[in-house]
Amino acid sequence: MTRSSIELGDVTPHNIKQLKKLNTVVFPVSYNDKFYVDVLEAGELAKLAYYNDIVVGAVCCRIDNTENQRRLYIMTLGCLSPYRRLGIGTVMFEHIMNFAEKDGNFDSIFLHVQINNNGAIEFYKKFGFEIVDTKEQYYKRIEPADAHVLQKTLRRTAPNSNSTATSTTANSNSRSKARQFTFV
Predict the structure, then answer these.
(1) Is the pLDDT assigned to residue 160 strictly greater than 60?
(2) What digits encode the pLDDT tens for the residues 83-136?
(3) Is the pTM value of this prediction over 0.85?
(4) 100 Cβ partners below 8 Å, 6+ apart?
(5) What CATH number belongs to 6-153?
(6) Continuous segment of H or E residues that includes residue 74
(7) Residue 112 is a catalytic residue
(8) Which residue among 112, 138, 139, 148 is the active-site one?
(9) Which end of the chain is more exposed for a tag (fewer CB within 10 A), N or C?
């Protein structure tokens, strides 16, 4: 019996086409060229997920400095359907959570989820996210067009403090039980 390996890798000009293809298959919307240019500049905030050396998922985030807050926005986090429920989504989310904790200066992490994507909503609720708003007609050309805004509030550290943001982390069982669904 062999062990399965889940690893995250950088998005580079050499593999950006894999990300584009993955997003085309996983998400019901298409992303413009600017999205991919920005992803190439995102560093640790954009990762491909490999399962036994095969690209099966990706996470792409950006820093949002609006409303007098510094927030981390999850633009996409998804996995090919045959590879869901294997802990890949959890590994991608934990990478982003670790980034936010190490930085220590984020007020929250947030994302938009199509209102009928119950699997994604439940996935994020396991990590302490809450529905904080619903945006009507958020999506164009897909139904339903409304999106929930999910947010996980982080404790912002004081300047010159050595403490890190607090978070809810997955226990060892949640990794094997985590289910990742597509959303935008």
Answers:
(1) no
(2) 999 999 999 999 999 999 999 999 999 999 999 999 999 999 999 999 999 999
(3) no
(4) 72, 106, 109, 154, 165, 167
(5) 3.40.630.30
(6) strand 71-79
(7) yes
(8) 112
(9) N
